[in-house]
Here is the input.
Amino acid sequence: MAKIAFLGMGVMGYPMAGHLAAKGHDVTVYNRSAEKAKKWTSEHKGRAAATPAEAAKGQDFVMACVGNDDDVRSVVFGKDGAFAGMAKGAVFVDHTTASADLARELEREGSKLGLGVVDAPVSGGQAGAQNGALTVMCGGKAEVFERAKPVMACYGKAVTLMGEAGAGQLTKMVNQICIAGLVQALGEGLAFGMRAGLDCEKVLEVISKGAAQSWQMENRGKTIIAGKFDFGFAVDWMRKDLGICMAEARRNGARLPVTALVDQFYSHIQERGGGRWDTSSLFHLLKNK
Ligand SMILES: NC(=O)c1ccc[n+]([C@@H]2O[C@H](COP(=O)([O-])OP(=O)(O)OC[C@H]3O[C@@H](n4cnc5c(N)ncnc54)[C@H](OP(=O)(O)O)[C@@H]3O)[C@@H](O)[C@H]2O)c1
Here is the structure.
C-alpha cells in the first residue's frame, strides 16, 4: 500500500480520494476550504493537512484535481506548495483538466527536484469518479507512469499513457472538441423533432440503435427532452476547456470552426445564468418557448 496525498476535494477529487482509502492506501487530503477536507475525514479513513506542502510531506504519490492552470500552480509551487513538501523520487499526478504547457512546466520543475510527474486528466464525470470508472489519459515518462498506474487504477477503468508530458492534456482536448459539436447536434436534432411534432422519446429509442448513437444520446437525450440540465459537467468548466483547446489550436494550426461556435453558444448559456448547468443545456437556446 502506498502513502498518498490528494489535493482538491471537489466534485471529482472527493470520491477519487475515497477510492484510494477504500483500497487500503494511506491517504492524506488537502482542500483550500478546510471544511470539505474535514467532511472527507469524517467519512473515510485518512487525515487532513493544512497546506499542500504538509499533505505532500513523506508521500510516495501526490495527486491533484483542482480547477485550472493557475489553481494547479497555486497548490504546487511556493513554500506551501506540494513540491516544497515532496521528497526526491516521489510522483506528482495532475488530474486537473489544464493546458499541455502547464503539464510540461510541471515536469520541467519537478525533474529539477528529482520528482516524477504525470499529467492525467480524466473523463467520465461525477458518476465516473463515484463509481471508480474514469478514463484517465496520461502524459509523462513511461517508468513514472508505470509506478503511478496501479494508484490511478483505484478509480480508473482505463488508464493509458499517450506520450510525453502534455500528451494526456492534448488527448483530453480531443475529447472535449468531439463532445462540443456532438452535444450541439443532439440538441438541434431533438429541437427539430419537437417542432415536427414527433414523440422524441420514441425517436431516441429508435435512432440510438443506429448510426447516430452516442454516449451523449444515451445519457443526456431523455434529460434534454425533460428540460433538465443538472447532470454533471458544468458549462463554466466546458468553456475553460474549450478555451484551452482553441489556444492550443492557434499554436498547432488546427481549425476548430464548430468548437469556436459552440463556445459562443455556451457564453449565451452563461448569460442566461446557466454557468453551472450541464453541457447539454445548449438545447436551452433551441427549444420552444
Ligand atoms: N466535474 C466533472 O464532471 C469533471 C469531469 C472531468 C474533468 N473535470 C475537471 O476536473 C477538475 C476539477 O473539477 P471538479 O468538478 O471537481 O471541480 P470543483 O467541484 O469545483 O472542485 C474544484 C476543487 O479545486 C479546488 N481549488 C480551486 N481553485 C483552487 C486554488 N486556487 N487553490 C486551491 N484549491 C483550489 C477547490 O477548492 P475549494 O473547495 O476551496 O473551492 C475544489 O476542491 C477541473 O479541471 C475539471 O475541468 C471535471
Remarks:
- The longest helix spans residues 167-195.
- The CA atoms of residues 269 and 285 lie 8 Å apart.
- The beta strands are 3-7, 26-30, 47-48, 61-64, 91-94, 116-119, 122-123, 134-139, 156-163.
